[in-house]
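User: If only I could read backbone structure tokens as easily as an amino acid sequence. Those tokens are not coordinates but codes from a learned vocabulary of shapes. Could you go through the record with me and say what the backbone is doing? Here is the record:
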Amino acid sequence: MNFPLARQSFYQEIQQNDNQIDLAKAALYIAQEEYPTLDPAEYLNVLDVMAGEVAQRLKEQRYPLRIVRAINGYLYEDLGFTGNTRDYYDPCNSFLNDAIARRTGIPITLALIYLEIARRLDFPMVGIGMPGHFLIRPEFEGAGIFVDAFNRGEVLFTEDCEQRLQQIYGPEVSMRPEFLTAVTRKQFLARILTNLKMIYLNRGDSEKCLGAIERILLLFPDSPLELRDRGLFYYQNGRWTQARQDLQTYLDRVPQAEDASVIRQILDRITWQENE
């Protein structure tokens, strides 16, 4: 693989079975492409220390709500972690090292810190990919509660999640069971990368946007939309052979796509360019 070292490390980490992927390591490898001198071990050690300090508060009484309260008190009251509402679309919010160092971030990075502390306390939690707002919950059947790491660890019930969903999308959007389904670790990482992809796209940073797409495709090589978007970037940069391959694969997999006619026109232009 002709990848930078950080991407090679990311690729190696995600080759494991999904439940064996170390989310914190993989997220730090994502950040390492932005910060080449970043030492993942430094931030993993910080998470170890944080979990150790929470553990000292718990002693023997480790029932679920007590653990949640202990993590909340430590993260939000003692350390001052907070959701970044002032500059939500700052790419730094999507990097785990920055979220730890700056003590602020977006829902998914704060959720990751929370998950990693909980895991070290032998209280596993999982990510919940609710549209528009990432949540977490304890990883056992019938837990019945969700935690909003972006809002100071607020404990939510299903009705609260629906209310939050409607605050984002309006009252016409109702809760569906799949909105509160646990995400896999690969899906968790893909959501971080998708956030970065959209931030860089809106900023016009095509190189970093392409880097995010390429890593999503390492996670999900058959994703039609990511193949399409990579093909469009290749086309814009005159990489005709690679563009044709991705765009043709997209059409083969989604022949009835709404943008199929536009993609076919681009493929015709690529053929014309190659014959010039």
